[in-house]
Amino acid sequence: MTAGIETDVEASFAELLAGVLRIDQVSVDSHFFDDLGADSLLMAQFCARVRKRGDLPHVSMKDIYAHPTIRSLAVAAAAPSVRPRPSGSPLGSAHPPAPTPTNPREYVLCGALQALFYLGFSYLSVLAAIAGYQLFVGASVGVERVVRLLLFGAVAFLVVCAIPIAAKWLLIGRWKPRQIRLWSLEYVRFWIVKTLIRSNPAPYLFIGSPLYGLYLRALGAKIGRGVLILSRRIPICTDLLSIGAGTVIRREASFLCYRGQAGRIEIGPVTLGRAPARVSRWRRTVSGALTLLVILFIYVPLLEGGLDMLSVWVSARVETGLVIRALAISFVLFFGLVLLGLLAIGIVPRVLSSVLKPDTVYPLYGFRYSMYRIIGGLSRMRFLPLLFGDSSYIVHFLRWMGWRLTPVVQTGSNFGSEVTTTNPFLTSVGTGTMIADGLNVFNDDISSTSFRVSRVAMGPRNFVGNYVNYPAGAKTGENCLLGTKVMVPIEGKTYQGVGLLGSPPFEIPRSVERDSRFDHLRTGEALRRGLAAKNRFNLQTIGIFLATRWLGVFLMVLIDLAALQSSHAFTGALFAFSAVAAAIYYALVERCFESLGPPPPPICSIYDSRFWWVERVWKLHPINFLHLFDGTPFKSVLWRLIGVRFGKRVFDDGVFISEPT
Exposed, middle or buried, 265 (CB in 10 Å: 0-12/13-18/19+)? Predict the structure, then answer.
């Protein structure tokens, strides 16, 4: 039932809102937040339901806050000034494009071909690696072994770099604007090239150096002089990528040159602007050469030599069976890397930060640029924030990194599990501020010729939502709410005591009635008991996280050792299976703990044990192990294994679903 209806739009809006709020009657003059007790999450659901109705005008969250009643919203939506419903067509037509039908037999055939390619490529790669190792290294010892190991690593890396380039030109030739039907044979070729490019280590090692531009040119991209690319999102359809001279592409940018829509892959051009480049060719050449030399003669030999020494050390001390050796190797490898990472992230940036002065401009590709990249790389390490996040211990970890957090009002959830910054020693967060997942602090300002680092200070008593990029010079002060993915303003007035939402941002209330329900748990004895209980539970969660992750590494090491001891006919297949087994194992771990925990509540205090179970499931999420199956039918199978309700023949190219059930 609804009250005071005058138009069909009002009736439809009131019906949808009543369904979202789960009440029988909605007055068209009732305020969404003050009278009906709604919040931004509920109103986002309302906007989504409106969008699904083709007979209703499009409304956004900005419209909701500007017109907070059914009547005023209906009047504004009917006005000619309201923007038209967005089109789903790449050509901007009035109606979304009709879905391209997919065939069940093609779906099955595509999955079979993808599995055969994965097994075949893994098999040949392992055989080639074994043959190359025996040819270059063999039974050599001493200095000769070290030299041969360096030579083998350099040749292997160059071959690995060349494989995606050769596959792209052999299977595709030049990319052209077109559409590819999902699960067709043409899509299989697209997927093979995409998988080889994304799984190749070369572009990730080249990011931020002149070598990355050369690599993309080899794939067919048109890259101007002086281009600097910092994004880790590797473009696929490179012949359609054009980047003008002097262009800078930051870390969060995406320029894939394709998208999946309505049962097909749509491939199209991406062109980024042109600007003059002033960095000398000599500086760029020297920087590129040094980067390649470091990769060939430091990174690759360290990886090869470290694994070789670990295997020899364990074999000399453990004479028992395969399982015991796998336990020893996986334990030393996993917990050794965790400890090494914890030491490196606190010591190395602390030593190197002295060479970078705030607000001082330095040229690219010099010594200080190398120090800047090392500090930034370590500060963006993801495993350790995931380990300590959503607990009281993340505060101590961030202080160890160099963040300035004093004084801290400990809540047990001060920071989420995804927190990154360019330079932790120039980052400070005010007292009483709480930060959800995905905070990305930008201390750096970079052009095609130079860079500088600056201090970033976040005010006290703020709440920062998910996936917020916070830049230096942000115009937010005390007691602000920064909504999910908000564009933080860097000019104009300084905002205090308000909320910001959207991109570009607009003001919303700092809090609603819902936020005061649990105020009695924020102080006194209730806070002390709740925080102590949460800390105990979080310690258990950290232990479970480390144990389950280590057991996954043990499983992979066990299968790989069995592969090395088996005949060549099974070696490649077992190596390929180890990655698949690990993904299935981590998916089952997440599903088991999801099943053991209580049903998640729609809203609760952070000191509610049901919320602690939600945080535990977040920490155990296997998304990083599922990307191997992106673009294949097997990804849907794994999502269903975790608990996601998927339809038939769903195309998943890398989606993250934080709440699987």
Answer: buried
Q: Is residue 317 part of a domain?
A: no
pLDDT at 238: 92
- 3 state SS of 20: helix
Contact 249, 275 (CB under 8 A): no
Are both 172 and 111 inside the same structural domain?
yes
d(CA 168, CA 164): 6
Give the residue ranges of the chain where pLDDT is below 50. Answer: 1-2, 82-94, 275-279
Query: Which pairing describes strands 178-181 and 264-267: parallel, antiparallel, or unpaired?
Result: antiparallel
Question: What's the rounded Cα separation, in Å, for the pair 372 and 381?
Answer: 15
Residue 416: helix, strand or coil by DSSP?
Answer: coil
Tokens representing 286? 């020297």
CA distance 218 to 115: 28
Strand partners, 132: none
136 & 248 share domain? yes
**Residue 262 buriedness (CB in 10 A; 0-12 / 13-18 / 19+):** middle
> Which residue, 334, 207, 186, 362, is CA-closest to 265?
186
Query: Is residue 117 domain-shared with residue 44, that is, in the same domain?
Result: no
CATH code of residue 12: 1.10.1200.10
Q: Which two tokens stand for residue 473?
A: 């010079």
Burial of 93 (0-12, 13-18, 19+ CB in 10 A): exposed
Question: Domain tally for the chain?
Answer: 4
What distance in Å separates the CA atoms of residue 430 and residue 405, rounded to the nearest whole number?
7
pTM of the model: 0.86
State which residues form the domain around 112.
107-272
3-class DSSP assignment, residue 270: strand
Supply 304's token pair. 């090869």
- Rounded alpha-carbon distances, angstroms, from residue 64 to 45, 507, 642: 12, 12, 35
Q: Is the omega angle on the peptide bond into residue 96 within 30 degrees of 0, that is, cis?
A: no
460 and 364 within one domain: yes
CA distance 255 to 593: 37
Beta sheet of 419-421, edge-to-edge order: 419-421, 439-442, 469-471
DSSP 92-137: --SSPPPPPP--HHHHHHHHHHHHHHHHHHHHHHHHHHHHHHHHHT
> Where among 60, 78, 96 does a domain terminate?
78
Type and span of the H or E element at 464: strand 463-464
Asked if residue 28 lies in contact with residue 16, where contact means CB atoms within 8 angstroms, the answer is no
Whether residues 194 and 111 share a domain: the answer is: yes
DSSP string of 225-252?
Answer: TT-EE------SSGGGEEE-TT-EE-TT
In the three-class reduction of DSSP (H, G, I as helix; E, B as strand; rest coil), residue 163 is classed as helix
In the chain, the largest separation of any two C-alpha atoms, in whole Å, equals 89
Residues in contact with 425: Cβ distance below 8 Å, sequence separation at least 6, in sequence order: 349, 350, 353, 402
pLDDT, residue 452, reads 93
Question: Is the residue at 280 inside a domain?
Answer: no
Residues in the chain: 661
Report the C-alpha gap between 66 and 126 in whole angstroms: 61
Q: Which amino acid type is present at position 20?
A: V
Same domain assignment for residues 115 and 74: no
**Is cis: bond before 598, omega within 30 of 0?**
no
- Domain match, 503 and 546 both: no
Does 245 reside within a domain? Answer: yes
Question: To which residue do tokens 């037999």 refer?
Answer: 105
Pairwise CA distance, residues 437 & 17, whole Å: 29
Are 12 and 59 in a shared domain? yes
CA distance 447 to 359: 14
**Residues contacting residue 110 through CB under 8 Å, at least 6 positions apart:** 183, 184, 185, 187, 188, 632, 633
